[in-house]
Amino acid sequence: MQAARRETALGPQGVPNPRSRAVLLCGKVVSVQASRPAAKPVLAPGQGRLTDLPSTSPALPPQECYKAAEQFPDVAVDEVISDTFAMRLLRDPELPSRRKQKMSLHRIAVIGGDGIGPEVVEAGVEVLEALAAVEPGLAFEFKRFDWGSDYYRRNGRMMPQDGLAQIEDFDAIYFGSVGDPDLPDDITLWGLRLAICQGFDQYANVRPTRLLPGLTGPLRPELGQQIDWVIVRENSEGEYAGVGGRAHRGLPIEVGMDVAVFTRAGIERIARFACDLAMSRPRKLLTVVTKSNAQRHGMVLWDEVVREVVRGYPGLTVDWMLVDAMTQRMVNKPGSIDTVLATNLHADILSDLAAALGGSLGIGSTANIDPSRSRPSMFEPIHGSAFDITGKGVANPLGSFWTASLMLDHLGEQAAARRLMVAIETVTGRGESLSPDLGGAARTAEVTAAVIAALEGVNSTSSSRLAG
């Protein structure tokens, strides 16, 4: 995808300079040998020449940069990054040469969605670009999709009819949130998020929780420090299977019905996923959540199939909890829990409680995984659209950053995932750049800048537990 590298670049007036290279900064071309990007010449789309445009001119998306660069065979394009890193690159001319020649390019579909979703996801993209600038061999290509409630208002649906086909070839999906106070929740949720999760059979929903350094949750400190959980949620059937209906609308005998669907295949595969995950963690402890005392058909099948699966894991310690009792255990005995397996509805509720106990819903992260890897998995913070703070610039982006770490781990970039988590923990540990929901006064941009600054000072070999 890159143009061939040659020992040429562009001087201040856009003239090829044989003594340096060029870097496209999302459209702006600067010489890495210059002390500052004086003229900021821009490759204009559809033109076969360089045009000196004001520095306020809109930059081109990366794909257009590459297309434009092909018109200039004497220009060596080292890489495409955002304007955010222009000055750092000019201070460090050797940065491109230190990157590995063989890059790990990950294509990410970005769906900001509704409410604060676009704000925190764009902050996450900025952090990922910063990470790629300091982590050898790491690169991203982001493509944004404007799906969500505003798209619904224009088109009568939350995403295009061929939406899944548009994103199925990406390596991962980075998702913000869905929900709008002026639209029914069943339209927004089923029209976008669940349409992707179920359409791509992302049957394993993984939600880690830890009390990060420097944060204070609602529990006593000695209890809060014991929180180190991963909740595994069955993500394709159960209470959210979508089976049911309504009849006799508007009449006294009107009825609505939702049917919880449990299949042997669905239970078996999520139980096996949870057992494998629990075995990969030091404590090798799995808690299975149920409600089979009251739901005597589907939940009894759940219990039976899970028991069959766990027999194949003799090294795993397994205990069972009714969902209502599990809420008390999470509050009163957090250290007795490690990996949790629960149904779609039960895990949805328990993981929100977990995030609150960890300090705030704003730090919660989620991975919607297709373990077969035949389709892209989707990664999202759990906080929802939060329309009460939308556009105010105070949304907590840490959940989207933790989510990005989950995505990196899934993409095989464990070193980068660790580096990002260390940066997040560095910021929370210092306590100087915390958003209002965590007791601070920092704005979204300030938290983002603090994490980026921490990334620059973190070595990829630094110690941190991966998100899962």
Provide structural commentary.
By secondary structure, the chain is an alpha/beta fold. The chain has helices at residues 62-69, 86-91, 95-98, 117-134, 149-155, 163-167, 185-199, 221-224, 264-280, 298-310, 323-332, 344-357, 398-410, 414-430, 444-456, and strands spanning 9-10, 16-17, 22-25, 28-31, 41-43, 50-52, 77-81, 104-113, 138-144, 172-177, 204-210, 228-234, 238-247, 255-261, 285-290, 317-322, 339-342, 365-369, 377-381. The protein is built from 15 helices and 19 strands. The strands form five sheets. Strands 9-8-10-19-18-11-12-17-15-16 form a ten-stranded mixed sheet, with helices on both faces. It has a three-stranded mixed sheet with strand order 4-3-7, covered by helices on one side. A two-stranded antiparallel sheet has the order 1-2. Mean pLDDT is 81; it is low at 1-102.
